[in-house]
Amino acid sequence: MQRVFGSLFGQVVAALVLGVLVGRLWPDFAVSLKPxxxxxxxxxxxxxxxxxxxxxxxxxxxxxxxxKVGRVGLKSLIYFEVVTTIALALGLVLAxxxxxxxxxxxxxxxxxxxxxxxxxxRVGQVTGTVDFLMKLVPTTFVDAFAKGDILQVLLLAILFGxxxxxxxxxxxxxxxxxxRITEVLFRIIGFIVRLAPLGVLGAVAFTVGKYGVGxxxxxxxxxxxxxGGVAAFVIVVLGGIMRLAGFSIFKLLAYLxxxxxxxxxTASSDCVLPQVMRKMERLGIKESTVGLVIPTGYSFNLDAxxxxxTLATVFIAQATNTDLSFGHLMLILGxxxxxxxxxxxxxxxxxxxxxxTLSAVPEIPVIGLVLVLSVDWFVGIARALGNLIxxxxxxxxxxxxxxxxxxxxxxxxxxxxxxxxxxAILEAPVAQPHTA
Length: 436
Fold this sequence. Notes:
The chain is mainly α. It has 23 helices and no strands.
């Protein structure tokens, strides 16, 4: 018993259960615990931008061959596009086959449009490919870090790392300094991660206390179908991809159990980004590959979010008695391919992107978004979990594709022969780039 609760995983699980109990028994008190979860996520986000910058720059300098770095980036984008398209198509199939919204016969006049104002006002932020590409470029170098925009920081890191790599020996002192700074940041994350049980307790207690599990009843078919769809996607699609790469999806899930538990409690994959990057390196994956694939995947490889986007769109159409032709379904798929790239793994953004998708299909009333607002947090848990798993699988697969993974080390870790607590992994020295 002491061994279980002495580990971070055991503590987070205990906090999750305690949060549910507090939310059910003392809902008013539970709502007041919200700052615990918010502060934990803010502490992690505080360090993420400089940490991603340091890891990517160090990885590019260590890789040496800039053409290889570019090749990894291109392969990553191709992989992301193929896999997210499969997820989008699966969402359409599930919605069409199981028809979760049929029979609801929602009266649009009775829906409260005011509850959507905070989301629909931001629709313009995620529509338009040109606007999205323009927002990849920060106003200034410092602005990207001030806003904590991971894609902007990644762009700066790639440019900075490429320039530093071209300096050769003259750039080595600066590269060494960045490596030491990155190691310090990982140590800081190690301290913050020990607060994960408190963060999970606050987030879960608040959610159960405010919304209650009763809010799931009316939309239970949609929620159950989405959870089942994510599970099927992870086991069948991602599991099949992992098997082709020579690894087991179940062993990977066991290896990431601590991070997955934290994500389940906070409904945000942002709060485990540093831990996941370090754990992927510990599998024997080259640091430059981890640094490129994981941060980029957080915006371009949102598998579970993509599945939800098409599923929820068709659900709203069915619930509002909107007939959709095959052409409409293909239009939804095409629009979702674009709008899904403007999402981020934090609860709330899903409604904004869903509104952007619906606005491009005028036959479906945007007011129908009110139907899914009450369960957004609950489906957000599965979205965050599926997105995180998808990005970890992508990192392993692309590393295997490029020969950037030490397979013997990966199998030792996944088989449990080389065990360590997450906090201990974060506090370990920064790994040197692996050479295939």
